[in-house]
Amino acid sequence: MLICCCALHCEAKPLIDHYRLQKLHAEHPFDVYRQQNIAVVVSGIGALNMAAATAWAAAFFEPARACWINLGVAGHQSLAVGELVVASQISQAGDNHSIYPVPLPKLRLALKPVISHAQPQSSYHDDALCDMEAYAFIHSASRFAPLELCHSLKIISDNAQHKPHRDKAAISQLIHARIDAIAGFAAQLMDLALQHARQKLPAEQLQRFLALAHFTQTQQIQLKKLLLGLRQHDYSLDQSLQSIDRMVDSRQILRQLEQQLHRQSEQL
Amino acid sequence: MADTIYIENAVRNHPRSTAILQRMPKARVINIERYGEVFNPKSQNFRLQKNNPALILARKHAGYSLPAPDGYNIGGHNNYYFSHMLNCVYDCRYCFLQGMYRSAHQVLFVNYEDFIADIEQICQQHSDEPVWFFSGYDCDSLAYEPITHFIDEHLPVFQRIDNAHLEIRTKSTQVRQLLQHPVNQRVVVAFSFTDEVTHRHSEHQVPSIDKRLDAMGKLAAAGWRLGLRFDPVVYHVNYQAEFERLLMRIFQRIDAASLHSVSLGSFRLPKQNFKTMHELYPEEKIFNQAFSRHQGMIGYAAEREQAMMGFCEQALLQYIPDSIFYPCHW
């Protein structure tokens, strides 16, 4: 699943239009738009809002299988208005700590550092973009997903020649103009998230085995490990389930599955 | 080849960094303060990162050469290892590096001059005795040679210091640069092998056995001393037949007289490394076999381990003299 976090509605709108997302009408602390495996959360301006929205989204959706994008506008000394930039390094103004998102392979987009500020800025850094939310986003999102799956994309909205503005339609238009590149980036990230998700055991598969007997917490961890091994051995979990069909003792089940796994694993 | 280079500001203008950046003109460059900022954060997934590892150019500040662990020797008493790189371009599923580091990026310490000064100092400390240095502990010594020029810069040092011995351990076929240097009898180029079944299953992106034997053949013809490293031997139902077949292939091409040393060890890992690696690759067959724990290490149960080592040792000693055989016991 892809979870996009934007500070403003006008930043989210091009995504909502492109993916034809529907607003979730249930009462939530943040506006949420969703269609199948893509969601957009609108946090509001500033680091606190972004951190709260990201954490809330992680609890609301299924974070173990999610990838994350923060999309928004930013300022830069010299980059052209409308340019799409991927954050290579994200830091908070006045703090030495930086977070480095892991660049996607064969990425053709520009990479630049981003410095997040508590207030809108009237001056620019030499090479870094200025924004307000990227650091809070990445700091929060990377607690729920590996850094490889958390990215911040910024569209340049202002520079030394073009002063910052709050023209919502113009901001949406800038993002809309780069929506294909953004969607391409998102698709590549979702492929990576899928690869990551394959390392996990779907809850429903585990549940089928847990229903057979009472497993202690430790045994549940053991069971999960065994099933992950068996599942990947082209040895269908259905067959495993059949082989322990009549067993009602958790230790016996674990022993049987372990033997199966060892046998399968000795044939490289 | 990496498409992203992180570079510490402190080595941005180091001549070796400049040369490497020139060798990789298409790479995206990201400036950093310390390599640990990129290499050490918790929230990284080694497996995902291994899809596209970056190169990190950094400075090493201390601990250039360290005493080798007990039992890590090929006949010498003074044994040290040094790592000009952390991590490997290859993706061998049994490799402990996967459990050792959080990041799959490759770190290259560009301040070779400090490593070399340390090597010189250690050799002075043991001036009456041979000192062995092992270079392929945290990386493959040769695989990144076209970028690092590690061999070009280090071989003259080992040529110059009379009591300095070097083991270059590799699975690479990058021997062109070695062949351009005069042969040094105090340098051993040690090639690691597993049998064909294990190689196909576990050694992703590693050159084929035949290509490695080609490289060994070229070095032997030029007079270089060679090593064979069968460590780890991985258990599978056909390991005996496959190990014998591997030896046959090797010794059809390589004269045992060109060998300096042969080592052998079964698959084993420190417990924490094994746990991390198993979590990264829960489906991996070589982690899902029957293991036992012994003194903080995970390995095959004693009976299986002894049977494997006994069989492989016997098979090996049909080709090599006992005097160059170094089994790794644990």
Spatial extent as radius of gyration of chain B: 20 Å
Average of the residue pLDDT scores of chain A: 93
Distance between the termini of chain B: 36 Å
CATH architecture of the largest domain in chain A: 3-Layer(aba) Sandwich
Order of strands, widest sheet of chain B? 4-5-9-10-11-13-14-18
Number of domains of chain A: 2
- Percentage of residues assigned to helices of chain A: 25-40%
Helix amount of chain B, in percent?
A: 25-40%
Uncertain stretches of chain B: none
Strand content of chain B: 15-25%
Instruction: Give the name of the CATH superfamily of the largest domain in chain A.
Output: Nucleoside phosphorylase domain
Instruction: State the end-to-end CA separation of chain A.
Output: 33 Å
Provide key terms for this protein.
heterodimer, A: 268 residues, alpha/beta, Rossmann fold, ten-stranded mixed beta sheet, 10 strands, 40% helix, elongated, B: 330 residues, pyruvate-formate lyase- activating enzyme, eight-stranded mixed beta sheet, 13 helices
Give me the secondary-structure topology.
The complex is a heterodimer of chains A (268) and B (330).
Chain A: E1 2-6, H1 9-19, E2 22-23, E3 31-35, E4 38-42, H2 47-60, E5 67-75, E6 84-92, E7 98-99, E8 110-116, E9 129-131, H3 134-141, E10 150-158, H4 168-176, H5 179-197, H6 203-210, H7 217-231, H8 237-243, H9 250-265
Parallel strand pairs in A: 1-4, 1-5, 5-10, 6-8, 8-9
Antiparallel strand pairs in A: 2-3, 3-4, 6-7, 6-10
Chain B: E1 4-8, H1 15-23, E2 28-32, H2 36-39, H3 46-49, E3 55-58, E4 65-67, E5 78-82, E6 85-86, E7 91-92, H4 97-100, E8 106-109, H5 112-125, E9 131-134, H6 145-148, H7 150-160, E10 164-170, H8 176-179, E11 187-192, H9 196-202, E12 203-204, H10 209-222, E13 225-233, H11 239-253, E14 259-266, E15 268-270, H12 271-280, E16 292-294, E17 297-299, H13 302-316, E18 325-327
Parallel strand pairs in B: 1-2, 1-3, 3-8, 5-9, 9-10, 10-11, 11-13, 13-14, 14-18
Antiparallel strand pairs in B: 4-5, 6-8, 7-12, 15-17, 16-17
Helix pairs in contact in B: 11-13
